[in-house]
Design brief:
alpha+beta; five-stranded mixed β-sheet; 41% helix
Length: 233
């Protein structure tokens, strides 16, 4: 009597062993090459799970992703049951992205060492606007910019700026420094009382999380004002 070989589908595996769930719980780095490919193809065939099929595809390429990347779409669809054109295209596209990533340059982070650096960071973005906008630059321990975030538009006052949004962005970016910057379309670079209040509130709130306000720049097409240069931080 022939016994039918039992095969568990991925949905029947323990949750921590399923590739998608495993990635969610432990991150992409915890997955094997076969598990990552299994996520790409989504399903296997009648005899194999997606992971088993992926293992066989890798084995046929010497368990080497560079060798696999040289296989054509036709080779994949012809040699592996369960790999149709759509799945083959997905595999080839993912491997091509991997090649391009390895040859891409890491974006250069601008380092803010002076108020002039901070002014230049925002100048082109804000100098010609007909309305006020408040932006922040979030920096790491070397004062290199992690990201810039637009916080508000249309005016700088206690109701227009939610300090929680500033702190949330800083915490999410693991920033150690914040640089505030907004424009004065009128060209008057003198800080208003609202500017002073905002600066102090952000400074005090950020300090509770060991995040430092490095500067608050007010700019126009004529120049800029720096709270740090004026000794007001």
């Amino acid at each position: 009597m022939n016994e039918k070989k039992e095969r568990l589908s991925i949905k029947e595996w323990a949750e921590e062993d399923r590739p998608r769930e495993k990635m969610l719980q432990k991150g992409a780095s915890a997955l094997s090459d076969a598990e990552l490919i299994a996520i790409l193809i989504g399903s296997g065939n009648q005899e194999e799970t997606a992971v088993q099929l992926s293992q066989r595809i890798l084995h046929a390429s010497g368990n080497n992703l560079n060798t696999l990347s040289k296989r054509s779409i036709k080779e994949l669809t012809t040699n592996f049951k369960g790999i149709g054109e759509a799945k083959a295209i997905t595999i080839c596209a993912a491997l091509e992205l991997g090649k391009r990533r390895s040859s891409s340059e890491v974006p250069r982070q601008e380092q803010i060492l002076t108020s002039e650096n901070a002014f230049r960071l925002f100048h082109d973005q804000l100098c010609d606007l007909p309305h006020e906008e408040l932006w922040i630059a979030l920096t790491n321990t070397q004062n290199k910019v992690i990201r810039k975030v637009k916080v508000s538009q249309g005016g700088i006052n206690q109701t227009a700026v939610d300090i929680r949004l500033i702190l949330k962005a800083a915490v999410e970016s693991l920033a150690t420094g914040i640089i505030l910057c907004h424009n004065h379309p009128s060209g008057n670079l003198r800080p208003s009382s609202q500017d002073d209040t905002l600066t102090e509130k952000v400074k005090q709130s950020a300090r509770l999380m060991d995040i430092h306000v490095l500067d608050h720049i007010i700019l126009s097409d004529k120049g800029y004002y720096s709270y740090a240069d004026e000794g007001r931080l």
